[in-house]
């Protein structure tokens, strides 16, 4: 490292050209420098390496043994540096083999990833997606460490240090099995509170949510008889029992197995967003992935 601190990258570029041309005048022309400037560079290089590097010969200059030993590693090093500082290549989805890791709940999987997947597979068949468990308290750390590329999360509660793009606004509807006798029309508040209901409690074991808070403002309570951690199981419960549930609308759209009506009171919805770290914000592959998700929404 001490040796590197003494070096100016321009000197190494000059040395590379001199080792190719064996002539100060031709090297100056290639470098678009004056001949005296190249001679000054050569003098500095000789001092740094403690070697004459290039000696006068019958047909220009000939490299010393030390210079010959530098030729190949110097060329490789400069090529690597050139590649490192070159502009990012355009992303080619058809040839891509990226693996993307996305943190999502089962809601995010169904409402966001599922609609995105078919188009993603068509456009980039060589890529792979790993869906990892969504743990809100870990999102920022996982993104910072590169353990995840994206997180699908509500806008509310998103880590403030991550990039964010809102995808859509979600609303709640009341759902039960197809043909449910209590859902032939929108129930009254009294009828709604009398229904046996199921709730999703992501943390597990909870029997209250946004609906209960809205009811409490009216001095009312509902009958929550089942609490589950995942939406997928909840849908199975609704399809096979007379239980009903307040569900995000995107989870039940187009389902022939479920009857859906508006609830008798307005329940605050939420906005869904994708989150990512600054480290991958300008990466062409990551930009393409984000755009695919936005288009699918």
UniProtKB/TrEMBL annotation:
The record's GO molecular-function terms, alphabetically, read: DNA binding; DNA-binding transcription factor activity
Q: Which UniProt keywords apply?
A: DNA-binding, Transcription, Transcription regulation
Where does the HTH lysR-type domain lie?
Answer: 7-64
SUPFAM superfamilies assigned to the protein according to its UniProt record, in alphabetical order: Periplasmic binding protein-like II, Winged helix' DNA-binding domain
Q: Which InterPro entries does the record cross-reference, listed alphabetically?
A: LysR-type_TF (IPR050389), LysR_HTH_N (IPR000847), LysR_subst-bd (IPR005119), WH-like_DNA-bd_sf (IPR036388), WH_DNA-bd_sf (IPR036390)
Which Gene3D superfamilies does this UniProt record tie to the protein? Periplasmic binding protein-like II, Winged helix-like DNA-binding domain superfamily/Winged helix DNA-binding domain
Q: Which domain of life is it from?
A: Bacteria
What are the boundaries of the signal sequence?
none
The answer to whether keyword Transcription regulation applies is yes
Family, similarity comment: Belongs to the LysR transcriptional regulatory family.
Instruction: State the name under which the record lists this protein.
Output: Transcriptional regulator
- State the organism of origin: Pseudomonas saudiphocaensis
């Amino acid at each position: 490292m001490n040796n590197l601190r003494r070096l100016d990258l321009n000197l190494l570029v000059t040395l590379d050209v001199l080792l190719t041309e064996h002539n100060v005048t031709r090297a100056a022309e290639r470098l678009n420098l004056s001949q005296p400037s190249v001679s000054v560079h050569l003098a500095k290089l000789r001092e740094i390496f403690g070697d004459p590097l290039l000696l006068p010969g019958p047909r220009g200059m000939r490299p010393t043994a030390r210079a010959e030993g530098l030729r190949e590693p110097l060329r490789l090093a400069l090529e690597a540096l050139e590649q490192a500082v070159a502009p990012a290549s355009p992303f080619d989805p058809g040839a891509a083999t990226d693996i993307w890791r996305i943190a999502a709940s089962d809601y995010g999987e169904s409402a966001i990833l599922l609609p995105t997947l078919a188009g993603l597979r068509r456009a980039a068949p060589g890529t792979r997606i790993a869906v990892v468990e969504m743990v809100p308290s870990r999102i920022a750390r996982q993104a910072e460490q590169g353990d995840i590329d994206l997180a699908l999360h509500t806008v509310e509660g998103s880590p403030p240090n991550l990039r964010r793009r809102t995808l859509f606004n979600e609303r709640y509807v009341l759902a039960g099995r197809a043909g449910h006798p209590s859902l032939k029309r929108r129930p009254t508040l009294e009828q709604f509170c009398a229904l046996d209901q199921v709730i999703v409690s992501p943390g597990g074991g909870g029997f209250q949510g946004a609906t209960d808070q809205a009811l409490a403002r009216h001095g009312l309570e509902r009958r929550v008889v089942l609490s589950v951690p995942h939406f997928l199981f909840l849908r199975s419960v609704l399809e096979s029992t007379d239980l009903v549930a307040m569900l995000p609308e995107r989870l039940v759209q187009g389902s022939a197995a479920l009857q859906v009506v508006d609830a008798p009171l307005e329940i605050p919805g939420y906005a869904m967003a994708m989150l990512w770290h600054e480290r991958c914000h300008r990466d062409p592959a990551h930009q393409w992935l984000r755009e695919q998700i936005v288009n699918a929404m």
